[in-house]
Amino acid sequence: MRPFQNIIRHVAIVSSIFLLSIAAGCSKPADKPNAGNTSGAMSAQTQSGSKLGDLSEFHTIAANVAVLVDKNDLPGAKTRIKDLESAWDSAEAGIKPRAASDWHVLDKAIDRALDALRAGNPQLSNCKARMDELMQAFDSMKGKQ
Q: Within a 10 A sphere around the Cβ of 50, how many other Cβ atoms?
């Protein structure tokens, strides 16, 4: 009976370590400033100035899409916004619990921009308006802590 108890003990220890490692790594690190980055495009507010944590990755992609829309490159914007959708959806589990209402504000703005760019015949004015709303939604998150 002793060897069986040792096996159970080892399995319990390994399982505990495994579960603790998953729990420790299940979400993105919140609000860690990027000390090495002095770029004006990536301000400290954009990086960590929200309850949702570091939104700079999403903000950068959205800004890229907005530039493409401003250049009337709607096919390029449609392709690039897919990157935003994928990144946002992948990060949902780590971001949404931090501030669900803020997450929903951004999620809805992303959905409206996606809908505008994916329309059967996308209209430049509508795409610009939706991208402006999305960028305003990101800006509204700054300083919310």
A: 25
Residue 47, pLDDT > 60, answer: no
Confidence (pLDDT) at 141: 87
Question: DSSP labels for 87-136?
Answer: HHHHHHHHHGGG-HHHHHHHHHHHHHHHHHHHSSS--HHHHHHHHHHHHH
Distance of CA 101 to the CA centre of its chain: 14
φ, ψ dihedrals at 144, nearest 5°: -85, 100
The C-alpha atoms of residue 137 and residue 63 are separated, in whole angstroms, by 12
The pLDDT value recorded for residue 142 is: 81
CA distances from 26 to 20, 91, 93, 106 (A): 10, 10, 8, 21
| pTM value > 0.70 | no
Cα distance between residue 1 and residue 126, in whole Å? 72
Q: Which helix (DSSP H) or strand (DSSP E) does residue 40 occupy?
A: none
- Bridge partners, 50 (sequence order): 144
124-141 vs 100-118: helix crossing angle, rounded to 10:
160
